[in-house]
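As noted in the main text, all predictions were made from sequence alone. Below is one such record, for Methyltransferase type 11 domain-containing protein.
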Amino acid sequence: MVSKPKLYLPELVLIRVSALTQRDRAAWLINRNDSLVNTVADNLLDRLEDVKKTFPTTLCLGGSLEAIRRSLRGRGETSTIFTASRCAIEKLIMMDSSYDMVKLCKDAEKDFSDNIETSFMVGDEEYLPIQRSSVDLVVSCLGLHWTNDLPGAMIQSRLALKPDGLFLAAIFGGETLKELRIACTIAHMEREGGVSPRISPLAQVRDAGNLLTRAGFTLPGVDVDEYQFLKKDTALATAAVYESMFAAEDGTIPATFQVIYMTGWREHESQQKAKRRGSATVSFQDIQKEFGGT
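Prediction:
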């Protein structure tokens, strides 16, 4: 089993309770046809297409559980990774910190007809109720930004993985809703004479690789997508600034969502190893001369 949970200061407990309340509220307001969430889930699982490996036991960790489940079903007949004949995913554990979110996903399970054995669990990403070295894949779609301790949650995921297991996650990046952040800041300065944060802090792209390394993953990989949706639904003061600064000629207003995709593996002897420094037999100067460089 995983180690004992860490102790939190009272203010951190309040923050965690607030986050859980927000997760419950998100379950009540969820839009199953959200194009952003469904696109990110599809793009996240696309990264498995190039992996020549099966994942019999998979943990889906928080975030957009149903979108991941739906994307898995949609790949059953066309993808070599997810066909039942290869048993790529035999057992799927769906876990979220919100009971309401888990119940919502469980109620939707009747809509999926495939051979994946699916179970449901309420649990904290920062203290996974999962045995060490028990799953082949941990996947999280837009859920880890709800945690107080992102590196700790990623370490918990690594410990839950078997050797050579894969961690695959999508998180919102720091450029998300950049237009709204700017508009909110200006509106607050004009109307209230000061600035207070309205959007949770998000990871920067440059930090994602460090997070993977800090959590102990090998072969870390990071790439980024940006999505823009043209909706105008902000407070009046913010909307006025927003429109004046970012409105397009047709009157629509862009809202940017930056998504950072992260992959990392639990260490295994079969994985590639970096060459020892100084072991190269050809210099870059020799390569430049060979190919006509200057």
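The first helix runs from residue 10 to 29. The two ends are 58 Å apart (CA to CA). These features were considered when defining construct boundaries for the mutagenesis experiments described in Section 2.9.
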